[in-house]
């Protein structure tokens, strides 16, 4: 059975990109898989150490998971820092991964900017902690937006290097498993994780600039639709979304070099759970004056129930805290099992 892991940082408001690119997939994957969904509070320290309300932000992401339909009884929902094994395995992976691998990460380059020497060491090592999140549970599938693809490739590289470096010890302890990686059959302790990326909404762009991704950190609130925006705000933001003067094309290739149009079509497709081609079948030839109100109605119809459920759940702090505590205990039991084996593989003495 596939094991799914994914994480979301507790920084800023969740937006439509997070929802369509990640959380909506988390919900869909619950049917056929065991899932572990984590609010990665330790990751949120990499860019900003001091937060006003990290606890409430963590609760708010948890509430969004639950309001979207994640079942915390069948699956595991918890915050990362509760399970100290994440930090422990990340340290091991810091010693497996090479500095050069980290310097190549586009997210590091973007976030560190020009003053790289002054970025936190945590920001550089970020993907190592992310690999630890995933591999602690020996997850096989990781649903994320397109922007996390490079980090998942690094996770595969780390798993592969660990498996290679310790291959003799893994064989001696008998803890390796055979797995299929592309054409090859390999043996190792850590699985080579498959990214689950794709569909029409894997990369939602800013509503103000079709060349930038929709992001929590964009200074303009008009650039994104927040999961908690009310109906009027959603409609206003879609009405003000940047477009070009042409009507929508009837065929997909007509969207080429029209990034803003393509983005709105992708958002519609993601919300309606249809393909972009199907959206164009319905709206091809129409002006944005027709398409935008239809998109706004659809967005309100899909997001308003989540927003109101999220507010209700956020109001019940004791419930949210109980979910995280219970999830943390269940996650810790799995994580400690993995770490016991990892310590044995490495040769760290333990009880
Ligand atoms: P984060 O918190 O930045 O984003 C959470 C999820 O939302 C996706 N996403 C988007 N998808 C489509 N369009 C967009 N504009 C958009 N913006 C964000 C992200 O791809 C992500 O899936 N490093 C991760 C958190 C993390 C993680 C993990 C994920 C830590 N450990 C282990 C998977 C597995 C991050 O910063 O996501």
UniProtKB/TrEMBL annotation:
Query: Per its UniProt record, what Gene3D superfamilies does this chain match?
Result: HUPs, Tyrosyl-Transfer RNA Synthetase
The record lists L-tryptophan as bound by 133
Extract the CDD domains matched here: TrpRS_core
Q: Where does ATP bind?
A: 9-11, 17-18, 145-147, 204, 213-217
Top-tier EC class: ligase
**Which Pfam families does its entry note?**
tRNA-synt_1b
Q: Which reaction does it catalyse?
A: tRNA(Trp) + L-tryptophan + ATP = L-tryptophyl-tRNA(Trp) + AMP + diphosphate + H(+)
User: In the UniProt record, does the keyword Aminoacyl-tRNA synthetase occur?
Assistant: yes
Question: Which InterPro entries is this protein grouped with?
Answer: aa-tRNA-synth_I_CS (IPR001412), aa-tRNA-synth_Ic (IPR002305), Rossmann-like_a/b/a_fold (IPR014729), Trp-tRNA-ligase (IPR002306), Trp-tRNA-ligase_bac-type (IPR024109), Trp-tRNA_synthetase (IPR050203)
Q: EC number(s) for this protein?
A: 6.1.1.2
The short motif 'HIGH' region is annotated over 10-18
State the UniProt keywords alphabetically: Aminoacyl-tRNA synthetase, ATP-binding, Cytoplasm, Ligase, Nucleotide-binding, Protein biosynthesis
Q: Where in the cell is it found?
A: Cytoplasm
Q: What does this protein do?
A: Catalyzes the attachment of tryptophan to tRNA(Trp).
- UniProt cross-references to HAMAP family, sorted A to Z: Trp_tRNA_synth_B
Q: PANTHER family from the xrefs?
A: TRYPTOPHAN--TRNA LIGASE, MITOCHONDRIAL (PTHR43766)
Q: Which family does it belong to?
A: Belongs to the class-I aminoacyl-tRNA synthetase family.
Name of the protein: Tryptophan--tRNA ligase
Q: Which organism is it from?
A: Mesorhizobium dulcispinae
């Amino acid at each position: 059975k596939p094991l799914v892991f994914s994480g979301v940082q507790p920084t800023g408001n969740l937006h439509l990109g997070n929802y369509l690119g990640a959380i909506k997939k988390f919900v869909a994957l619950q049917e056929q898989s065991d899932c572990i969904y984590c609010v990665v509070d330790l990751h949120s320290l990499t860019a900003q150490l001091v937060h006003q309300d990290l606890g409430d932000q963590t609760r708010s992401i948890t509430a969004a998971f639950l309001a979207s339909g994640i079942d915390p009884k069948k699956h595991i929902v918890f915050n990362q820092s509760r399970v100290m094994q994440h930090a422990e395995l990340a340290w091991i992976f810091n010693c497996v991964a090479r500095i050069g691998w980290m310097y190549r990460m586009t997210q590091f380059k973007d976030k560190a900017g020009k003053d790289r020497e002054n970025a936190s060491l945590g920001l550089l090592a970020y993907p190592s902690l992310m690999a630890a999140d995933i591999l602690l549970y020996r997850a096989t599938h990781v649903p994320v937006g397109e922007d996390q693809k490079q980090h998942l490739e690094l996770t595969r590289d780390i798993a592969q290097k660990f498996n290679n470096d310790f291959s003799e010890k893994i064989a001696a302890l008998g803890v390796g498993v055979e797995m299929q990686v592309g054409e090859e059959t390999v043996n190792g302790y850590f699985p080579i994780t498959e990214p689950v990326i794709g569909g029409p909404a894997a990369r939602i762009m800013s509503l103000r600039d079709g060349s930038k991704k929709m992001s929590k950190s964009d200074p303009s609130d008009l650039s994104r639709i927040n999961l908690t925006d009310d109906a009027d705000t959603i409609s206003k933001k879609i009405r003000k979304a940047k477009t070009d003067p042409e009507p929508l094309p009837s065929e997909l290739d007509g969207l080429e070099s029209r990034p803003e149009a393509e983005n709105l079509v992708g958002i519609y497709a993601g919300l309606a759970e249809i393909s972009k081609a199907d959206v164009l079948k319905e709206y091809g030839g129409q002006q944005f004056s027709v398409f935008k109100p239809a998109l706004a109605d659809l967005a309100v119809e899909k997001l308003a129930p989540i927003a109101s459920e999220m507010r209700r759940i956020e109001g019940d702090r004791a419930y949210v805290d109980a979910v995280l505590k219970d999830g943390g205990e269940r996650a810790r039991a799995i994580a400690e099992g993995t770490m016991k084996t990892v310590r044995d593989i490495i040769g760290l003495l333990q009880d």
